[in-house]
């Protein structure tokens, strides 16, 4: 039986600061292949190159990855400032309508970091440009120096809603995660359920209430050492199950809070 196909949303990248490409992290591909049991397919994040309907026919689900550029604040009705950082408008134009389409149809999606923020914005929510500037919030950005292991080190707990979707998937109410993001949810989007938070109250795990399929997002990076991490593995396993069900023509029940 053929493996389900996962469209992994890529990011614009310049090789040697001059040659334009679309790239995807190897860790994402490995997690999709090794844990979800699916075929990873990197998608150019530009609607001038790919069509949403073609993508949905080709792929059984989508992984919305992290990336340095942020969702442009115009997408949630705010003006651009220096604090918002850099942008990728082509990715915005692809991912936001693709997310809304998948939410409506029930096609499985897993949204990570920037993807988590895209999920919230796609549903009408907004973002803080810099979490660490808010009173009482910690610095969620990656350490500026150090090895990959130090940058992706586990740095804070995430507490899930008792009996909620993430609690059921993880088998635990509190887990330990890495943190490598500057922005975060300001106003949650319509039907977005915040199902997990950091100790400072920053939303870290969300899903769409009533979505007819797997529609989950996490603010941390579960793709790092996903095979050996007790938090990452069940998340990608659950994603894989949803992908296989979709590929087999099964349509899951709507997501509901505890």
Helix content: 25-40%
- Please list the strands of the largest sheet in the order they lie side by side: 4-1-5-6-13-12-11-8-9
Q: How confident is the prediction overall: mean pLDDT?
A: 92
When the domains are counted, the total is 1
Percent strand equals 15-25%
| Number of H/I helices | 7
- CATH class category name: Alpha Beta
Structural class, please? alpha/beta
Write out the CATH superfamily name.
Class I glutamine amidotransferase (GATase) domain
Shape type: globular
Describe the oligomeric state of these chains in a short phrase. Answer: single chain
CATH topology: Rossmann fold
Please give the radius of gyration in angstroms.
Answer: 17 Å
Could you describe the 3D structure shown?
There is one protein chain. This protein is α/β, with parallel strands linked by helices. It has a single domain, classed as 3-Layer(aba) Sandwich (Rossmann fold). It contains seven helices and 13 strands. The strands form three sheets. Strands 4-1-5-6-13-12-11-8-9 form a nine-stranded mixed beta sheet, sandwiched between helices. A hairpin with a 5-residue loop joins strand 11 and strand 12 (203-208). The N and C termini lie far apart (35 Å). The model has no long low-confidence stretch (mean pLDDT 92).
């Amino acid at each position: 039986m053929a493996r389900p196909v996962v469209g992994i949303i890529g990011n614009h990248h310049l090789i040697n600061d001059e040659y334009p490409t679309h790239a995807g992290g190897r860790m994402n591909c490995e997690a999709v292949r090794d844990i979800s049991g699916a075929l990873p397919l990197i998608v150019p994040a530009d609607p001038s190159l790919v069509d949403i309907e073609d993508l949905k026919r080709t792929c059984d689900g989508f992984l919305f990855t992290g990336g340095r550029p942020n969702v442009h604040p115009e997408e949630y009705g705010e003006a651009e400032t220096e604090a918002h950082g850099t942008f990728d408008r082509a990715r915005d134009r692809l991912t936001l309508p693709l997310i809304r389409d998948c939410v409506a149809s029930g096609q499985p999606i897993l949204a990570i970091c920037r993807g988590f923020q895209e999920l919230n914005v796609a549903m009408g929510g907004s973002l803080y440009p810099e979490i660490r500037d808010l009173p009482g919030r910690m610095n969620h950005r990656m350490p500026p120096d150090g090895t990959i292991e130090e940058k992706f080190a586990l740095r804070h707990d995430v507490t899930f809603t008792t009996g909620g979707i993430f609690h059921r998937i993880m088998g635990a109410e509190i887990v330990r995660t890495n943190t490598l993001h500057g922005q975060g949810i300001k106003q949650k989007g319509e039907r977005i359920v915040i199902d997990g938070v950091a100790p400072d109250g920053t939303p870290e795990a969300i899903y769409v209430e009533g979505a007819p399929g797997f529609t989950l997002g996490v603010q941390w990076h579960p793709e790092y050492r996903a095979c050996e991490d007790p938090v990452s593995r069940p998340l990608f396993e659950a994603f894989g199950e949803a992908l296989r069900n979709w590929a087999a023509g099964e349509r899951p029940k709507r997501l509901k809070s505890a």
